[in-house]
Protein backbone atom coordinates (compact mmCIF):
# COMPACT_ATOMS: atom_id res chain seq x y z
CA UNK A 1 0.00 0.00 0.00
CA UNK A 2 1.37 3.35 -1.08
CA UNK A 3 0.95 6.27 1.28
CA UNK A 4 0.52 9.90 0.40
CA UNK A 5 3.40 12.23 1.16
CA UNK A 6 1.63 13.70 4.18
CA UNK A 7 0.85 10.25 5.57
CA UNK A 8 4.44 9.15 5.13
CA UNK A 9 5.53 12.31 6.89
CA UNK A 10 3.22 11.51 9.80
CA UNK A 11 5.09 8.23 10.14
CA UNK A 12 8.45 9.97 9.75
CA UNK A 13 7.47 12.28 12.57
CA UNK A 14 6.42 9.37 14.75
CA UNK A 15 9.86 7.82 14.31
CA UNK A 16 11.64 11.08 15.03
CA UNK A 17 12.62 12.13 11.50
CA UNK A 18 12.39 15.93 11.19
CA UNK A 19 9.66 17.24 8.85
CA UNK A 20 8.03 20.64 8.40
CA UNK A 21 4.76 21.44 10.06
CA UNK A 22 1.72 21.21 7.81
CA UNK A 23 -2.00 20.62 7.44
CA UNK A 24 -4.06 18.65 4.91
CA UNK A 25 -6.69 20.60 2.94
CA UNK A 26 -9.47 19.51 0.59
CA UNK A 27 -10.71 22.92 -0.56
CA UNK A 28 -9.15 26.32 -1.33
CA UNK A 29 -10.78 27.68 1.85
CA UNK A 30 -9.17 24.98 3.95
CA UNK A 31 -5.86 25.72 2.27
CA UNK A 32 -6.24 29.36 3.25
CA UNK A 33 -7.11 28.49 6.85
CA UNK A 34 -4.14 26.12 7.03
CA UNK A 35 -1.79 28.80 5.71
CA UNK A 36 -3.15 31.27 8.27
CA UNK A 37 -2.46 28.81 11.08
CA UNK A 38 1.01 28.06 9.79
CA UNK A 39 1.65 31.78 9.64
CA UNK A 40 4.20 32.58 6.97
CA UNK A 41 5.08 31.42 3.48
CA UNK A 42 3.82 27.93 2.69
CA UNK A 43 4.14 25.37 -0.03
CA UNK A 44 0.94 23.94 -1.49
CA UNK A 45 1.47 20.31 -2.47
CA UNK A 46 -0.75 17.97 -4.48
CA UNK A 47 -1.27 14.66 -2.70
CA UNK A 48 -1.28 12.00 -5.40
CA UNK A 49 0.30 8.57 -5.50
CA UNK A 50 2.84 9.41 -8.18
CA UNK A 51 6.15 11.23 -8.25
CA UNK A 52 7.34 14.22 -10.23
CA UNK A 53 4.58 16.43 -8.92
CA UNK A 54 6.81 19.47 -8.96
CA UNK A 55 7.41 19.29 -12.71
CA UNK A 56 3.71 18.63 -13.33
CA UNK A 57 2.67 21.85 -11.60
CA UNK A 58 1.42 20.11 -8.47
CA UNK A 59 3.71 21.97 -6.06
CA UNK A 60 3.61 25.72 -5.64
CA UNK A 61 5.00 28.19 -3.14
CA UNK A 62 2.60 30.75 -1.66
CA UNK A 63 3.70 33.81 0.27
CA UNK A 64 0.38 34.56 1.95
CA UNK A 65 -2.83 32.84 3.00
CA UNK A 66 -4.69 34.46 0.10
CA UNK A 67 -2.00 33.23 -2.27
CA UNK A 68 -2.27 29.72 -0.78
CA UNK A 69 -5.99 29.78 -1.54
CA UNK A 70 -5.23 30.84 -5.11
CA UNK A 71 -2.56 28.15 -5.59
CA UNK A 72 -4.93 25.57 -4.10
CA UNK A 73 -7.53 26.48 -6.74
CA UNK A 74 -4.94 25.90 -9.45
CA UNK A 75 -3.81 22.53 -8.11
CA UNK A 76 -7.08 20.92 -6.95
CA UNK A 77 -8.60 18.90 -9.78
CA UNK A 78 -5.34 18.81 -11.69
CA UNK A 79 -4.69 15.52 -13.46
CA UNK A 80 -1.15 14.35 -12.78
CA UNK A 81 -0.53 11.35 -15.01
CA UNK A 82 -4.00 9.96 -14.40
CA UNK A 83 -4.13 10.92 -10.72
CA UNK A 84 -6.67 13.63 -9.98
CA UNK A 85 -5.71 15.90 -7.09
CA UNK A 86 -8.35 15.81 -4.34
CA UNK A 87 -6.18 16.53 -1.33
CA UNK A 88 -3.49 19.10 -0.69
CA UNK A 89 -0.80 19.31 1.92
CA UNK A 90 -0.05 22.83 3.08
CA UNK A 91 3.36 23.00 4.66
CA UNK A 92 5.58 25.71 6.09
CA UNK A 93 7.91 26.63 3.25
CA UNK A 94 11.55 25.77 3.72
CA UNK A 95 14.61 27.55 2.43
CA UNK A 96 16.75 25.06 0.63
CA UNK A 97 20.51 25.12 0.42
CA UNK A 98 21.17 21.51 -0.57
CA UNK A 99 19.03 18.62 -1.74
CA UNK A 100 20.14 15.09 -0.84
CA UNK A 101 18.47 11.72 -1.39
CA UNK A 102 18.03 8.90 1.13
CA UNK A 103 16.02 5.72 0.80
CA UNK A 104 15.69 2.23 2.14
CA UNK A 105 14.05 -0.56 0.19
CA UNK A 106 14.34 -4.31 -0.30
CA UNK A 107 17.00 -5.92 -2.39
CA UNK A 108 15.06 -9.07 -3.22
CA UNK A 109 18.06 -10.73 -4.80
CA UNK A 110 20.12 -10.51 -1.62
CA UNK A 111 17.09 -10.66 0.67
CA UNK A 112 18.33 -7.66 2.60
CA UNK A 113 17.22 -4.09 3.15
CA UNK A 114 19.20 -1.71 0.98
CA UNK A 115 20.04 1.89 1.81
CA UNK A 116 20.77 4.35 -0.96
CA UNK A 117 22.17 7.78 -0.34
CA UNK A 118 23.47 10.58 -2.55
CA UNK A 119 24.09 14.29 -2.26
CA UNK A 120 22.54 14.65 -5.73
CA UNK A 121 18.96 14.70 -4.50
CA UNK A 122 15.88 16.50 -5.75
CA UNK A 123 16.01 14.91 -9.16
CA UNK A 124 15.06 11.54 -10.51
CA UNK A 125 17.14 8.93 -8.70
CA UNK A 126 17.17 6.62 -11.75
CA UNK A 127 18.92 9.42 -13.59
CA UNK A 128 21.58 9.75 -10.88
CA UNK A 129 22.09 5.98 -10.92
CA UNK A 130 22.53 6.02 -14.67
CA UNK A 131 24.62 9.15 -15.22
CA UNK A 132 26.77 9.28 -12.08
CA UNK A 133 26.60 5.83 -10.52
CA UNK A 134 29.58 6.61 -8.28
CA UNK A 135 27.63 9.36 -6.58
CA UNK A 136 25.03 6.87 -5.36
CA UNK A 137 26.14 4.97 -2.28
CA UNK A 138 24.45 1.61 -1.75
CA UNK A 139 24.64 -0.31 1.48
CA UNK A 140 22.91 -3.49 2.61
CA UNK A 141 21.80 -4.17 6.15
CA UNK A 142 21.91 -7.71 7.46
CA UNK A 143 18.38 -8.21 8.81
CA UNK A 144 19.57 -10.51 11.58
CA UNK A 145 22.27 -8.16 12.80
CA UNK A 146 20.04 -5.15 12.32
CA UNK A 147 21.20 -1.64 11.61
CA UNK A 148 24.61 -0.62 12.98
CA UNK A 149 25.66 3.02 13.44
CA UNK A 150 28.83 2.52 11.36
CA UNK A 151 26.60 1.88 8.37
CA UNK A 152 25.25 5.42 8.52
CA UNK A 153 28.82 6.73 8.66
CA UNK A 154 29.75 4.68 5.62
CA UNK A 155 26.82 6.16 3.67
CA UNK A 156 27.68 9.70 4.71
CA UNK A 157 31.43 9.52 4.07
CA UNK A 158 30.82 7.53 0.89
CA UNK A 159 28.66 10.32 -0.51
CA UNK A 160 31.15 12.98 0.57
CA UNK A 161 29.16 14.91 3.19
CA UNK A 162 31.81 16.93 5.00
CA UNK A 163 29.99 19.20 7.39
CA UNK A 164 30.13 17.64 10.91
CA UNK A 165 26.71 18.96 11.91
CA UNK A 166 25.14 17.57 8.72
CA UNK A 167 26.92 14.27 9.29
CA UNK A 168 25.50 14.00 12.77
CA UNK A 169 21.95 14.86 11.75
CA UNK A 170 21.96 12.56 8.73
CA UNK A 171 23.37 9.68 10.79
CA UNK A 172 20.46 10.06 13.21
CA UNK A 173 17.96 10.20 10.34
CA UNK A 174 19.42 7.05 8.73
CA UNK A 175 18.94 5.12 11.99
CA UNK A 176 15.40 6.40 12.41
CA UNK A 177 14.55 5.61 8.81
CA UNK A 178 15.63 2.02 9.46
CA UNK A 179 13.39 1.95 12.54
CA UNK A 180 10.49 3.30 10.48
CA UNK A 181 11.12 0.76 7.71
CA UNK A 182 11.20 -2.22 10.06
CA UNK A 183 8.63 -0.86 12.51
CA UNK A 184 5.93 -0.41 9.85
CA UNK A 185 6.83 -3.45 7.69
CA UNK A 186 7.59 -1.06 4.86
CA UNK A 187 8.85 -2.03 1.43
CA UNK A 188 10.11 1.46 0.62
CA UNK A 189 10.86 4.60 2.61
CA UNK A 190 12.27 7.33 0.40
CA UNK A 191 13.20 10.92 1.20
CA UNK A 192 13.79 12.98 -1.95
CA UNK A 193 14.83 15.59 -1.27
CA UNK A 194 16.37 15.39 2.15
CA UNK A 195 17.25 19.06 2.46
CA UNK A 196 19.80 21.14 4.29
CA UNK A 197 18.48 24.62 5.08
CA UNK A 198 20.71 27.72 5.08
CA UNK A 199 20.71 27.39 8.90
CA UNK A 200 22.20 23.92 8.54
CA UNK A 201 19.08 22.04 9.55
CA UNK A 202 18.51 18.67 7.83
CA UNK A 203 14.93 17.53 7.20
CA UNK A 204 12.67 15.44 5.00
CA UNK A 205 10.96 17.63 2.42
CA UNK A 206 9.18 14.78 0.65
CA UNK A 207 8.22 11.22 1.49
CA UNK A 208 7.48 8.10 -0.50
CA UNK A 209 6.30 5.32 1.76
CA UNK A 210 5.07 1.85 0.80
CA UNK A 211 3.88 -0.62 3.41
CA UNK A 212 3.61 -4.35 2.75
CA UNK A 213 -0.08 -5.18 2.24
CA UNK A 214 0.43 -8.52 3.93
CA UNK A 215 1.53 -6.80 7.14
CA UNK A 216 -1.31 -4.30 7.34
CA UNK A 217 -3.16 -6.48 9.82
CA UNK A 218 -0.43 -5.58 12.28
CA UNK A 219 -0.77 -1.86 11.64
CA UNK A 220 -4.42 -0.89 11.93
CA UNK A 221 -3.55 2.79 11.99
CA UNK A 222 -1.76 2.56 8.66
CA UNK A 223 -4.41 0.35 7.05
CA UNK A 224 -6.94 3.08 7.82
CA UNK A 225 -4.92 5.55 5.80
CA UNK A 226 -6.05 3.91 2.59
CA UNK A 227 -7.88 6.40 0.41
CA UNK A 228 -10.92 4.50 -0.81
CA UNK A 229 -12.05 7.41 -2.99
CA UNK A 230 -8.88 7.41 -5.02
CA UNK A 231 -8.71 3.65 -5.41
CA UNK A 232 -10.18 1.85 -8.38
CA UNK A 233 -13.79 1.11 -7.27
CA UNK A 234 -13.58 -2.46 -8.53
CA UNK A 235 -10.37 -3.09 -6.64
CA UNK A 236 -12.07 -1.74 -3.52
CA UNK A 237 -15.09 -4.00 -4.09
CA UNK A 238 -12.78 -6.98 -4.62
CA UNK A 239 -10.85 -6.22 -1.44
CA UNK A 240 -14.08 -5.94 0.55
CA UNK A 241 -15.25 -9.30 -0.78
CA UNK A 242 -11.87 -10.94 -0.30
CA UNK A 243 -11.48 -11.65 -4.02
CA UNK A 244 -8.04 -11.53 -5.62
CA UNK A 245 -8.59 -9.19 -8.56
CA UNK A 246 -6.18 -7.58 -10.97
CA UNK A 247 -7.20 -5.08 -13.62
CA UNK A 248 -5.70 -5.45 -17.09
CA UNK A 249 -6.35 -3.82 -20.42
CA UNK A 250 -8.03 -6.28 -22.81
CA UNK A 251 -11.56 -7.59 -23.33
CA UNK A 252 -11.80 -11.05 -21.74
CA UNK A 253 -12.59 -11.34 -18.04
CA UNK A 254 -10.79 -14.28 -16.47
CA UNK A 255 -11.72 -16.40 -13.52
CA UNK A 256 -9.58 -19.28 -12.43
CA UNK A 257 -8.63 -21.20 -9.33
CA UNK A 258 -5.03 -20.90 -8.27
CA UNK A 259 -2.39 -18.39 -9.30
CA UNK A 260 -0.54 -20.78 -11.60
CA UNK A 261 -3.63 -21.72 -13.58
CA UNK A 262 -4.71 -18.11 -13.83
CA UNK A 263 -1.29 -17.05 -15.14
CA UNK A 264 -1.36 -19.79 -17.78
CA UNK A 265 -4.88 -18.76 -18.73
CA UNK A 266 -3.63 -15.24 -19.44
CA UNK A 267 -0.96 -16.74 -21.67
CA UNK A 268 -3.40 -18.92 -23.57
CA UNK A 269 -5.77 -16.00 -24.13
CA UNK A 270 -2.83 -14.09 -25.59
CA UNK A 271 -1.78 -17.13 -27.64
CA UNK A 272 -5.11 -17.21 -29.47
CA UNK A 273 -4.99 -13.49 -30.16
CA UNK A 274 -7.02 -12.06 -27.29
CA UNK A 275 -6.22 -9.86 -24.33
CA UNK A 276 -7.42 -10.27 -20.75
CA UNK A 277 -9.47 -7.42 -19.27
CA UNK A 278 -8.73 -8.57 -15.74
CA UNK A 279 -8.42 -11.69 -13.69
CA UNK A 280 -9.82 -13.12 -10.50
CA UNK A 281 -8.32 -15.98 -8.59
CA UNK A 282 -10.89 -18.07 -6.72
CA UNK A 283 -8.06 -19.76 -4.85
CA UNK A 284 -9.07 -23.06 -3.33
CA UNK A 285 -12.71 -22.01 -3.19
CA UNK A 286 -15.45 -22.42 -5.73
CA UNK A 287 -18.56 -22.44 -3.60
CA UNK A 288 -21.51 -20.37 -4.81
CA UNK A 289 -20.62 -17.45 -2.57
CA UNK A 290 -17.07 -17.20 -3.89
CA UNK A 291 -18.24 -17.52 -7.49
CA UNK A 292 -20.93 -14.87 -7.05
CA UNK A 293 -18.42 -12.47 -5.48
CA UNK A 294 -15.85 -12.98 -8.21
CA UNK A 295 -18.39 -12.73 -11.05
CA UNK A 296 -19.81 -9.59 -9.55
CA UNK A 297 -16.40 -7.95 -9.59
CA UNK A 298 -15.50 -9.14 -13.10
CA UNK A 299 -18.74 -8.27 -14.87
CA UNK A 300 -18.74 -4.74 -13.52
CA UNK A 301 -15.58 -4.01 -15.44
CA UNK A 302 -16.94 -2.18 -18.51
CA UNK A 303 -14.10 -3.51 -20.66
CA UNK A 304 -15.22 -7.12 -20.23
CA UNK A 305 -16.87 -8.49 -23.40
CA UNK A 306 -16.78 -12.16 -22.43
CA UNK A 307 -15.86 -14.17 -19.36
CA UNK A 308 -13.63 -17.22 -19.33
CA UNK A 309 -14.09 -19.48 -16.34
CA UNK A 310 -11.12 -21.83 -16.17
CA UNK A 311 -11.21 -24.38 -13.37
CA UNK A 312 -8.95 -27.26 -12.61
CA UNK A 313 -10.49 -29.36 -9.90
CA UNK A 314 -8.12 -30.61 -7.25
CA UNK A 315 -9.39 -30.11 -3.76
CA UNK A 316 -12.02 -27.93 -5.40
CA UNK A 317 -14.58 -30.19 -7.05
CA UNK A 318 -15.78 -29.21 -10.50
CA UNK A 319 -19.41 -30.17 -9.82
CA UNK A 320 -19.40 -27.83 -6.88
CA UNK A 321 -18.03 -25.01 -9.01
CA UNK A 322 -20.65 -25.78 -11.67
CA UNK A 323 -23.38 -25.49 -9.05
CA UNK A 324 -21.75 -22.28 -7.86
CA UNK A 325 -21.92 -20.88 -11.39
CA UNK A 326 -25.60 -21.80 -11.72
CA UNK A 327 -26.40 -20.34 -8.32
CA UNK A 328 -24.57 -17.17 -9.29
CA UNK A 329 -26.51 -16.91 -12.56
CA UNK A 330 -29.78 -17.31 -10.67
CA UNK A 331 -28.87 -14.49 -8.33
CA UNK A 332 -27.68 -11.99 -10.89
CA UNK A 333 -28.02 -11.05 -14.51
CA UNK A 334 -24.81 -11.20 -16.44
CA UNK A 335 -24.79 -9.50 -19.81
CA UNK A 336 -21.56 -10.99 -21.08
CA UNK A 337 -21.33 -14.54 -22.47
CA UNK A 338 -19.50 -17.00 -20.24
CA UNK A 339 -17.21 -19.80 -21.38
CA UNK A 340 -16.53 -22.56 -18.89
CA UNK A 341 -13.78 -25.13 -18.97
CA UNK A 342 -13.78 -27.69 -16.20
CA UNK A 343 -11.15 -30.33 -15.72
CA UNK A 344 -9.89 -32.48 -12.88
CA UNK A 345 -11.88 -33.76 -9.94
CA UNK A 346 -15.52 -34.44 -10.87
CA UNK A 347 -15.16 -32.61 -14.19
CA UNK A 348 -17.68 -34.82 -15.96
CA UNK A 349 -20.30 -34.34 -13.28
CA UNK A 350 -19.63 -30.64 -13.43
CA UNK A 351 -20.10 -30.48 -17.18
CA UNK A 352 -23.28 -32.53 -16.87
CA UNK A 353 -24.68 -30.15 -14.26
CA UNK A 354 -24.08 -27.25 -16.64
CA UNK A 355 -25.38 -29.13 -19.71
CA UNK A 356 -28.59 -30.11 -17.89
CA UNK A 357 -29.31 -26.58 -16.79
CA UNK A 358 -28.02 -25.09 -20.06
CA UNK A 359 -28.38 -21.45 -19.07
CA UNK A 360 -28.44 -18.93 -21.87
CA UNK A 361 -25.11 -17.39 -22.80
CA UNK A 362 -23.08 -20.17 -21.18
CA UNK A 363 -20.70 -22.19 -23.34
CA UNK A 364 -18.89 -25.27 -22.09
CA UNK A 365 -15.58 -26.19 -23.68
CA UNK A 366 -13.48 -29.27 -22.97
CA UNK A 367 -10.00 -27.77 -23.03
CA UNK A 368 -8.28 -24.62 -21.95
CA UNK A 369 -7.27 -23.81 -25.54
CA UNK A 370 -10.78 -24.25 -26.92
CA UNK A 371 -12.21 -22.30 -24.03
CA UNK A 372 -9.78 -19.46 -24.61
CA UNK A 373 -10.53 -19.41 -28.32
CA UNK A 374 -14.27 -19.37 -27.73
CA UNK A 375 -13.98 -16.58 -25.15
CA UNK A 376 -11.87 -14.47 -27.51
CA UNK A 377 -14.26 -15.12 -30.41
CA UNK A 378 -17.20 -14.01 -28.30
CA UNK A 379 -15.34 -10.96 -27.06
CA UNK A 380 -14.19 -9.89 -30.50
CA UNK A 381 -17.34 -10.97 -32.34
CA UNK A 382 -15.45 -12.95 -34.97
CA UNK A 383 -14.37 -16.50 -35.77
CA UNK A 384 -10.74 -17.16 -35.15
CA UNK A 385 -8.98 -19.05 -37.85
CA UNK A 386 -5.49 -20.41 -38.17
CA UNK A 387 -4.84 -19.74 -34.52
CA UNK A 388 -2.31 -22.00 -32.80
CA UNK A 389 -3.77 -25.42 -32.12
CA UNK A 390 -6.84 -24.58 -34.18
CA UNK A 391 -8.70 -27.72 -35.17
CA UNK A 392 -12.29 -26.82 -35.91
CA UNK A 393 -13.98 -28.99 -33.31
CA UNK A 394 -11.06 -28.39 -31.08
CA UNK A 395 -10.00 -31.77 -29.74
CA UNK A 396 -6.51 -31.65 -31.28
CA UNK A 397 -5.44 -28.95 -28.91
CA UNK A 398 -6.62 -30.84 -25.86
CA UNK A 399 -3.21 -31.82 -24.56
CA UNK A 400 -1.58 -28.48 -25.14
CA UNK A 401 -4.55 -26.75 -23.62
CA UNK A 402 -3.76 -27.94 -20.17
P1 LIG B 1 7.97 15.59 -6.23
O1 LIG B 1 8.20 16.48 -7.40
O2 LIG B 1 6.69 14.81 -6.39
O3 LIG B 1 9.12 14.70 -5.94
O4 LIG B 1 7.72 16.54 -4.95
P2 LIG B 1 8.73 17.14 -3.85
O5 LIG B 1 8.01 17.19 -2.58
O6 LIG B 1 10.03 16.41 -3.86
O7 LIG B 1 8.95 18.61 -4.35
C1 LIG B 1 9.55 18.89 -5.58
C2 LIG B 1 10.43 20.08 -5.47
O8 LIG B 1 9.71 21.23 -5.05
C3 LIG B 1 11.53 19.93 -4.45
O9 LIG B 1 12.63 19.21 -4.95
C4 LIG B 1 11.86 21.36 -4.13
O10 LIG B 1 12.77 21.85 -5.07
C5 LIG B 1 10.52 22.06 -4.31
N1 LIG B 1 9.96 22.32 -2.98
C6 LIG B 1 9.16 21.52 -2.26
N2 LIG B 1 8.92 22.05 -1.03
C7 LIG B 1 9.60 23.21 -0.98
C8 LIG B 1 9.79 24.22 0.02
O11 LIG B 1 9.29 24.14 1.15
N3 LIG B 1 10.56 25.28 -0.31
C9 LIG B 1 11.18 25.40 -1.52
N4 LIG B 1 11.93 26.45 -1.76
N5 LIG B 1 11.03 24.47 -2.49
C10 LIG B 1 10.27 23.39 -2.22
MN1 LIG C 1 10.31 14.34 -4.32
For the secondary structure, the number of strands is: 19
Low-confidence stretches: 389-402
Approximate helicity band = 25-40%
The hetero molecules present are:
guanosine-5'-diphosphate, manganese (II) ion
> Roughly what fraction of the amino acids lie in strands?
15-25%
**Anisotropy-based shape:** elongated
Overall residue-averaged pLDDT value: 91
The rounded Rg comes to: 27 Å
- For the termini, the CA-CA separation is 35 Å
Q: Biggest sheet, in brief?
A: 7 strands, antiparallel
Please tally the helical runs, counting DSSP H or I stretches of 4 or more residues.
13
Assign the structural class, choosing from mainly alpha, mainly beta, alpha/beta, alpha+beta, or little secondary structure. alpha+beta
Amino acid sequence: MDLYEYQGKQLFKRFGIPVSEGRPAKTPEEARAAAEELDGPVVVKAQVLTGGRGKAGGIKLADSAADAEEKAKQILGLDIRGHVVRTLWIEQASDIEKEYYLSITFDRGLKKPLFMFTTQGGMDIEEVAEKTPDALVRLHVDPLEGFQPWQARRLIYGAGVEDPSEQKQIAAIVGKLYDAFVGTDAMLCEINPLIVTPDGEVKALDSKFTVDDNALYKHAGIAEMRDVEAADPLETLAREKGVTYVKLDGEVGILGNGAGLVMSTLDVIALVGGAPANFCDLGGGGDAEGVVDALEVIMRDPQVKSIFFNIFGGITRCDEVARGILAALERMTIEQPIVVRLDGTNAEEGRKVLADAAPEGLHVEATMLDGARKAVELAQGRRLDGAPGSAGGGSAGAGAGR
